[in-house]
């Protein structure tokens, strides 16, 4: 399909005999610095913020537990991909804040935008260099701190610019029941974090949730939980403690074939004890000090009060703990687990999800990075978050993406159902794994080490059979924490290392030239999380590739049939260093030169385009040419524009708008009084038309009954359909009279979905009665994935 560029006309009122020049200059936080602080070199930050695209997390999102995805969509109203992208931004923000140190007075996230307040202007430059938005002073932070000094609990509502007081009490500890819940044999199971356990004492059963998997300094599996789970009325519980069989609570059958009632959202359990259950005893001594039966659950390191709420649960026997969290982690078949990569410090605004045996996965946001509250009369210092947390969920894991945030220690919600929240703010308190002065890391030291997942590195270049230059660049992705180390070894050469980025990507250039021929390589990854002193290492990946005097042309992205929203799609690949790469795409020819590391990037020239295209990429070297042809590269059209009418209109109204030239436009009209279209009423429903050669379209609406309507549209080019446009309101005030009136539409067509970047400087010269406007702009493309 040929490219067409939609022109835009700028009209200005004439000014007699005058010359006006208007310059728009982008301002940054550093511009506000005083003269003294702006002198000298600008600071070079150790870590900088960046924007993460949801599409870069498509593969990771597909691996998330289905019940967690459901909670993300239900509670956060976002996709799993967006959640992981925002979580990556939160982890990066955590690293930025840590690198800034005492400069930070307060910090919070608004989506992926990091805000940092400082105490004086001289500290602005260091923060601005990281890409964060800088504030001098923070009135909300000061107000919250003043409330806390008076013994009140409050947090800053950044969206509404106000302080929210918490009047309700925080309640923690286990859920109580007089009925025996189903229990499981824990001696040989492999468990995820998130499993439930039950303590029996004085004919009462206390249920709670375990959080994260870890090990002792000797390598013994230990699961972290809340200290308040093992306390009742300020006294430690000392009855038998057993693994809770959540599979029997979900309406399955026990060993006798009797069906259980299956209600994990109630305080009482149902079903009989398993015949082969081995009861354990709650103890606070080192498990090595006495012999215990296989399957016993033992507790050590119980600490409650003074800001702390934590305990360690050990399963005596051959049971193993996976480095993941599941809602119902007591049964590997109940729920897929969320792999844990590392821990991070809480930051206000970060999306947080929690796992519990009563309410399962629920999600919300961190509302305060640090707060001290009373839970059962004991001080707990940690972070506040607003994900639903009810009785029995205490002790469960709180995560941001794949990063462990803390342990749920208490909540203001006293019911057993998330529907009991009511109108007042309902928040929970989490005991931190890291960050601040009071946390798991400082409490236990080497006595508890967080277990993490470091996946096998996936090598995307060079792939098996590739022919590279003498200094190839290895690239790939990995399921591991940001900051993990990837080690690449080619043959007998010295290993080279790279650091994993927050989106899981890594890149390792080979700096020493390799001789021509076939080479073997190995790739592995390693990471030491916090809290831990133990390094976790991945499996080793092996492969081969060939080095030639002249590297062959390889196009890594896009592949045939790929689609993107970018009108200037990014083509990326490898070739021979110094060779010229030429791209022919939609009547556009552009070129680039292969970098010294053997990589190249090229995009077609800017144009308003959509549909299916053929791309030809050519490499020119001293020994000849290579050519790769890619068919059916798709560019999805942007949403069309629907012109919004001013005020009420009559029934015989013609809706107009702009779209890509010659595209098919489908206009949807709905009455506001009904959620569905009214099929028997004329003109209510879908109307299809075709935009003209200038991109204009129009739909006449005769016989439209008086009332309020919503109107939006999509456009299609080839087999690709845009997202739906913004909805405009149409208020019909009178019955039809047979004469159609067209909605007001400017002569200049609006942008139809392309993302437009206006450069920082615009010069406008007005001479005499004539006016000339010059506006430079370019369409910004998106990366292929």
From TrEMBL:
<feature type="region of interest" description="Disordered">
    <location>
        <begin position="241"/>
        <end position="300"/>
    </location>
</feature>
<feature type="compositionally biased region" description="Basic and acidic residues">
    <location>
        <begin position="255"/>
        <end position="268"/>
    </location>
</feature>
<feature type="compositionally biased region" description="Acidic residues">
    <location>
        <begin position="285"/>
        <end position="294"/>
    </location>
</feature>
<feature type="region of interest" description="Disordered">
    <location>
        <begin position="171"/>
        <end position="192"/>
    </location>
</feature>
<dbReference type="InterPro" id="IPR018114">
    <property type="entry name" value="TRYPSIN_HIS"/>
</dbReference>
<dbReference type="InterPro" id="IPR009003">
    <property type="entry name" value="Peptidase_S1_PA"/>
</dbReference>
<dbReference type="InterPro" id="IPR035070">
    <property type="entry name" value="Streptogrisin_prodomain"/>
</dbReference>
<keyword id="KW-0812">Transmembrane</keyword>
<protein>
    <recommendedName>
        <fullName>Trypsin-like serine protease</fullName>
    </recommendedName>
</protein>
<feature type="transmembrane region" description="Helical">
    <location>
        <begin position="756"/>
        <end position="777"/>
    </location>
</feature>
<keyword id="KW-1133">Transmembrane helix</keyword>
<keyword id="KW-0472">Membrane</keyword>
<feature type="signal peptide">
    <location>
        <begin position="1"/>
        <end position="29"/>
    </location>
</feature>
<dbReference type="GO" id="GO:0006508">
    <property type="term" value="P:proteolysis"/>
</dbReference>
<feature type="compositionally biased region" description="Polar residues">
    <location>
        <begin position="523"/>
        <end position="533"/>
    </location>
</feature>
<dbReference type="InterPro" id="IPR013783">
    <property type="entry name" value="Ig-like_fold"/>
</dbReference>
<feature type="region of interest" description="Disordered">
    <location>
        <begin position="517"/>
        <end position="539"/>
    </location>
</feature>
<dbReference type="GO" id="GO:0005975">
    <property type="term" value="P:carbohydrate metabolic process"/>
</dbReference>
<dbReference type="GO" id="GO:0004252">
    <property type="term" value="F:serine-type endopeptidase activity"/>
</dbReference>
<dbReference type="InterPro" id="IPR043504">
    <property type="entry name" value="Peptidase_S1_PA_chymotrypsin"/>
</dbReference>
<keyword id="KW-0732">Signal</keyword>
<feature type="compositionally biased region" description="Low complexity">
    <location>
        <begin position="269"/>
        <end position="284"/>
    </location>
</feature>
<dbReference type="InterPro" id="IPR033116">
    <property type="entry name" value="TRYPSIN_SER"/>
</dbReference>
């Amino acid at each position: 399909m040929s490219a067409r560029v939609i022109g835009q006309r700028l009209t200005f009122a004439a000014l007699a005999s005058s010359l006006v020049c208007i310059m728009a200059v982008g301002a940054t936080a550093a511009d506000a610095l005083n003269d003294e602080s702006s002198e000298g070199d600008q600071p070079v930050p150790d870590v900088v913020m960046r924007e993460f695209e949801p599409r870069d997390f498509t593969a990771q999102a597909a691996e998330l537990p289905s019940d967690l995805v459901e909670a993300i969509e239900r509670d956060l109203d976002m996709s799993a991909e967006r959640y992981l992208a925002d979580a990556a931004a939160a982890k990066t923000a955590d690293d930025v804040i840590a690198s800034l140190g005492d400069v930070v007075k307060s910090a919070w996230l608004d989506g992926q935008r990091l805000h940092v307040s400082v105490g004086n202007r001289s500290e602005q430059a260091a923060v601005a260099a990281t890409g964060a938005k800088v504030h001098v002073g923070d009135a909300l932070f000061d107000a919250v701190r003043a409330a806390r000094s008076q013994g009140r609990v409050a947090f800053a509502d950044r969206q509404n610019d106000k302080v929210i007081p918490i009047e309700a009490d925080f309640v923690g500890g286990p859920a109580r029941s007089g009925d025996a819940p189903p229990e499981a044999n824990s001696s040989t199971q492999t468990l995820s974090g998130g499993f439930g356990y039950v303590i029996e004492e004085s004919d009462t059963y206390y249920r709670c949730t375990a959080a994260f998997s870890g090990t002792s300094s000797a390598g013994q599996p230990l699961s972290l939980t809340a200290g308040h789970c093992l306390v009742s009325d300020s006294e430690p519980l000392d009855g038998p403690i057993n693994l809770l069989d959540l599979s029997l609570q979900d309406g399955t059958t026990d060993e006798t074939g009797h069906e259980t009632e299956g209600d994990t959202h109630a305080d009482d359990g149902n079903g009989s004890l398993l015949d082969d259950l081995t009861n354990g005893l709650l103890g606070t001594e080192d498990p090595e000090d006495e012999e215990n039966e296989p399957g016993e659950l033992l507790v050590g390191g119980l600490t409650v009060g003074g800001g702390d709420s934590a305990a360690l649960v050990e399963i005596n026997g051959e049971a193993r703990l996976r480095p993941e969290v599941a809602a119902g982690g007591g049964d590997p078949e109940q729920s897929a687990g969320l792999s844990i990569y590392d821990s991070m410090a809480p930051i206000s605004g970060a999306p947080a999800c929690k796992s519990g045996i009563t309410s399962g996965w629920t999600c919300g946001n961190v509302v305060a990075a640090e707060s001290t509250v009373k839970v059962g009369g004991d001080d707990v210092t940690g972070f506040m978050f607003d994900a639903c947390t009810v009785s029995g969920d205490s002790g469960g894991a709180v995560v941001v993406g794949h990063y462990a945030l803390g342990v749920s220690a208490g909540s203001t919600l006293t019911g057993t159902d998330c529907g009991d929240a009511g109108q007042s703010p309902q928040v929970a308190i989490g005991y931190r794994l890291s960050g601040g002065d009071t946390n798991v890391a400082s409490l236990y030291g080497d006595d508890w080490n967080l277990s993490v997942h470091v996946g096998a590195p996936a090598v995307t270049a060079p792939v098996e059979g590739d022919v590279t230059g003498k200094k190839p660049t290895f690239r790939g992705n990995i399921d591991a924490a940001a900051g993990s180390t990837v080690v690449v070894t080619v043959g007998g050469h010295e290993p080279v290392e790279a650091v994993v980025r927050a989106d899981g990507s890594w890149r390792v250039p080979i700096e020493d030239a390799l001789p021509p021929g076939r080479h073997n390589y190995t790739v592995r990854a390693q990471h030491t999380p916090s809290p831990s002193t133990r390094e976790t290492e991945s499996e080793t990946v092996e492969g081969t590739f060939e080095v030639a005097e002249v590297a062959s042309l390889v196009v890594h992205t896009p592949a045939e049939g790929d689609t993107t929203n970018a009108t200037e799609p990014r083509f990326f690949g490898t070739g021979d260093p110094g060779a010229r790469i030429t791209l022919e795409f939609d009547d556009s020819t552009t070129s680039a030169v292969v970098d010294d590391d053997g990589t190249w990037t090229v995009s077609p020239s800017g144009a308003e385009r959509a549909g299916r295209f053929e791309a030809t990429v050519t490499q020119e070297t001293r020994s000849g040419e290579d050519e790769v042809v890619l068919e059916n590269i798709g560019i999805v059209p942007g949403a069309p524009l629907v012109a919004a009418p001013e005020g009420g209109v009559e029934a015989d109204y013609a809706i107009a708008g702009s779209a890509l030239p010659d595209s098919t436009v489908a206009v949807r009209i709905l009455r506001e009084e009904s959620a569905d279209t009214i099929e028997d009423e004329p003109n209510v429903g879908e109307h299809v038309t075709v935009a003209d050669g200038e991109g204009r379209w129009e739909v006449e609406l005769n016989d439209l009954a008086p009332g309020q309507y919503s109107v939006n549209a999509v456009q299609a080019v080839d087999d690709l359909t845009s997202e739906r446009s913004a909805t405009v309101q149409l208020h019909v005030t009178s019955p039809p009279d047979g004469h159609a009136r067209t909605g007001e539409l400017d002569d200049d067509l609006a942008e139809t979905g392309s993302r437009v970047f206006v450069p920082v400087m615009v010069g406008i010269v007005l001479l005499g009665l004539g006016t000339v406007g010059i506006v430079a702009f370019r369409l910004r493309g998106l990366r292929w994935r």
